[in-house]
From TrEMBL:
This is 26S proteasome regulatory subunit Rpn7 N-terminal domain-containing protein. InterPro entries: Rpn7/CSN1, Rpn7_N. It comes from the Eukaryota. Residues 120-247 form the 26S proteasome regulatory subunit Rpn7 N-terminal domain. It comes from Aphanomyces astaci. One of its GO terms (biological process) is proteasome-mediated ubiquitin-dependent protein catabolic process. Pfam families: RPN7.
Amino acid sequence: MLSHFGRILRQKEASISMGAPEEATKKKPTSGHISEQLEEDISTFPHMEVSHLYFLLQVATTSHAALADAEVAAAKTKLLGLIAEHHMAPFYERVAAEFHWPVDTALLATMKYFHPPQQTQHNEDELTKLDGQLADAEANLGDIEVLEAHLGRARLYSLIGDKDKVLEAFHTALAKPTSVNQKIIIQLHIIRVGLFFSDLPLVETHIKKARVLIDEGGDWDRRNRLKVYEGCYLLMARDFKKASSLFQVFVGLHAHVNRDKYLALHSRYIYRELRILAYAQFLEAYR
């Protein structure tokens, strides 16, 4: 049941995480709304496939892991490929320290000092440019341009997997004049960052905030996105009944639950509860 459930979640994640161009945000004239390109980017970063591969490698270090050596090697290779592709230097340093990998200094230097996709611009230069846009917006432009400048920084930090910096950028943006819809966009992205890093307290806090804002004026797309994120959170928090009601899905369960990011921690609980239910159903015939 729940293994396929996990695959559906990842498909849902993919539907809101793939296909976002990674070029530097091009600000266009706005009238009370952030640019569509910027909104699309901050709603699809960080890439959840990276988070899933990271989780598989964490699973491989536990006693209940059912991953073959070849699967572990494939997950590591793919993860490093995605990290390099998106120039995720802060995230690379994080996982290298956690898994005690020798740091590839050449790869790290490439990720730190070049920004995709042009391969010609230093990350530091990109941040300097964003700082310049912010200073210009604060001095000469309006609230929406100031907000876009802050979100541009959040976009970059989200793409490269710098958790502390992206949260700092979003909290700074929330302190600026923002509409309900802009607040919803920010809250949804903070939830996404929390799911990426499996930070359940962060996710729970901002789900509550997003729910209040969406009740004030969220559209259909953002309501559905919140349901997906909340369903992922509920699976990780072991509230399977409520998660099922959100996803409206009923599917089969098998041993691959141990490889699912949202369910692996609860695999013994799931099997125990299912055995109890099955045995109760069996005894029902003798009443």
